[in-house]
Amino acid sequence: MPQVGQGILKGMGVTIRHLFQNKITRQYPEYKRDLPERSRGMLTVDMDRCIACLQCMRICPDHCISIEQEKRDADGSGKAKPYAVGFVIDDSRCMYCSLCVEVCPVNCIYHTEEFEAQAYNRLELARQFGERPVDPTIDPKPTVKKKPKAAKQAPKKEATA
Amino acid sequence: MLSEERRVEQQSALTEPAAARLAAPDVRDEFGLETIDMSMGPQHPAMHGLLRLILELDGETVVRCDPVMGYLHRCQEKIAENRMYPAVIPLTDRLDYFANMHNEHGYVLAVEDLLDVEVPPRAEYIRVLMSELMRLASHIPSIGFLMLELGAFTPILYAFRERERIQTIFEAVTGARMMFHYIRIGGVKADLPPDIPQKIWDYIEGLESRFQNDFVDLIQGNEIFISRTRGVGKMTQEKAVEMGLTGPPLRCTGVDFDLRRDYPYSIYPELEFDVITDTAGDVEASYRIRIAECLQSIRLIKQCLEKMPEGAVMGDLGRRLRPKEGDGFGRVESPRGEFAVHIVSDGSDTPYRVHYRDPSFCNMQLLQEVVPGHYLPDIMPIMGLIDPVSGGWDK
Amino acid sequence: MQTVLNLLEAEPIRLFVSFGAVLFLVLNLAAILTMAERKASAYIHLRYGPNRVGPRGLLQPAADVVKLFTKENVMPGRSDMWVFLGAPIAMFIPAALVWMVIPFSPDAVVANLNVGILFFVAITSIGALGVVMAGYGSRSTFSLLGALRGAAQIISYEVPLILSLLGVIMLTGSLSLVEVVNAQGSTFWTWYFLPQLPMFLTFYIAGLAEVKRVPFDLPEGESEIVGGFMVEYSGMTWALIQAAEFASMGLMSAINVTLFLGGWQPPLPFLDFGPFNWVWFGLKTALIMFTFQWIRWSLPRLRMDQLMDLGWKVLVPMTLVWLFVTAGAMLVIPGN
Amino acid sequence: MAVTLPEGNLEDRLKGYLDGFGNRHGLLESEIVRGSVRIVVAPGDVQAVLATAKEALGIVHLSFITVVDRVGSFEITYELMDLRGGRVTLKTTIEGEEPVIGTATGIYPTANWHEREAYDMFGVAFAGHPDLRRLYMWQDHFDHHPLLKSFEITTRRTFEGLR
Question: Could you give the CA distance from residue A28 to residue A116 in angstroms, rounded to a whole number?
Answer without folding.
Answer: 12
